[in-house]
Known about the structure:
There is one protein chain. The chain is of the alpha+beta class. Helices cover 28% and strands 15% of the residues. It has six helices and 13 strands. The radius of gyration is 20 Å and the shape is globular.
Amino acid sequence: MVCAILSVLAAILFPVIRTATAAARNRQCLNNFAQVGAALALYQGDYDDTVPPVNYRKASTSSSEEDRSWVQTLLPYAGDFALFQCPSDTGRLGITERSTVTTGGWKNYYNASLRSNLGYNFIYLSPLIEDQAGNWNAFPASGSQIANESSTIAFIDSVWDRTVSGQPYGGGSWVVVPPCRYIDTPSGAYDTFGIPGNSRSYFGFSPPGWQPSSSTSWLVYGGAWPWHRNRFTILYADGRAASVNLPLLVQGCAFAPHWRGRIQSTTDYLWDLQD
Length: 275
């Protein structure tokens, strides 16, 4: 009888505990994003209202002091590397970024920064472009270029990769890509990314975009990932953190995989700089 009662109580309590734990992790993630938002504001105050460059050059896990990620740039303002990690990211198991930052040397610190769970909306906010001479240059936006900071995504929950069974692993990704790219106009398709035709972006000439039908690609949501019961934590460019669902991320966009969809309302679309 006692065992039966304990089994019933366990069946009732375990889901409640799981829900409470998930809610606590969601609150912690929101707090982390908000603190990174405060660090972003401090950085912009020091650099004429511009956002940080996503990288100095094309990112590579073999890079050393030749490059720096936006995470490394903001860390002195944020103060704690743990703020860039999502407490619900089960794929972080075995990753020890915090000790790496202090003892692992530049290369390990750099590589750890690329596993941030805050994915940067870098194509709009700080595109990284290679010129014909082979030089990589970032073009960070200023606050004045963002038409509505309160409705423009700066960072979002992200994932590094997924296993063949579709499970996330490796932590997060310091960059993400948006769901739509083009706007139809009477003169043809307008590319909102603004990448010059004779240049190359970080994702190459033909970036893949979102692939929601894929069972294994990390780009299922452009590198973003719903760590919180199918919801994503985001940070708007004005520093406000929020928890949102998938429909909000594609609003204003007639979504289709591989950037075949079209932006239909720049007012509703949360990724670009236009209003």
